[in-house]
Design brief:
150 residues, 19% helix, 2,3-Dihydroxybiphenyl 1,2-Dioxygenase, domain 1, alpha/beta, 2 domains
Length: 150
């Protein structure tokens, strides 16, 4: 058996590449991620032990929007180090005019779970959360799938 060392990267394909570039260029530095490549076909951010790439979709899919319930990605969640960090992200999202689906609040998925849920310009669902201690790995605590991200 191996133990992976986190997630190396996620690449998102977007239909509004220029709007996504602007959005992620404001969001990622606030999450400690630096833009290391910004080209015509890719923007790539690295930091916090992971990376996020944004690339344009094929021309025949231009104008389409993300549908959370389809096969594939449901949402991406970045782990914050404190509740205050989640609140700071929410303030940034309000400042840049992002669509906030769920303002910062407690969630039922683990003891102390605190999160903000929002969308990028294509409607891709994104979350920043904080879970104190060991979260669902704490003794006698388990994953509670009773929450709803819709």
């Amino acid at each position: 058996m191996i133990t992976v060392n986190g997630m190396a990267h996620v690449i998102l394909t977007v239909s509004q590449f220029d709007a996504a570039r602007t959005f992620y260029s404001k969001l990622m530095p606030a999450l400690g991620m630096e833009c290391v490549f910004d080209g015509e076909e890719m923007v790539y951010f690295v930091g916090a032990r992971t990376a996020l790439g944004i690339q344009p979709c094929a021309p025949e899919h231009a104008g389409e929007r993300f549908v959370q319930g389809r096969v594939g990605l449901h949402h991406i969640c970045w782990r914050a180090r404190s509740r205050e960090d989640v609140d700071t992200v929410e303030a940034l999202l309000n400042n840049i005019g992002a669509h906030i689906v769920t303002p910062a609040k407690k969630g039922p998925w683990a003891p102390g779970y605190y999160y903000v849920l929002f969308e990028d310009p294509d409607g891709i669902r994104l979350e920043v959360n904080f879970v104190p201690g060991q979260g669902v790995l704490a003794k006698d605590e388990g994953f509670n799938p009773g929450g709803d991200y819709r």
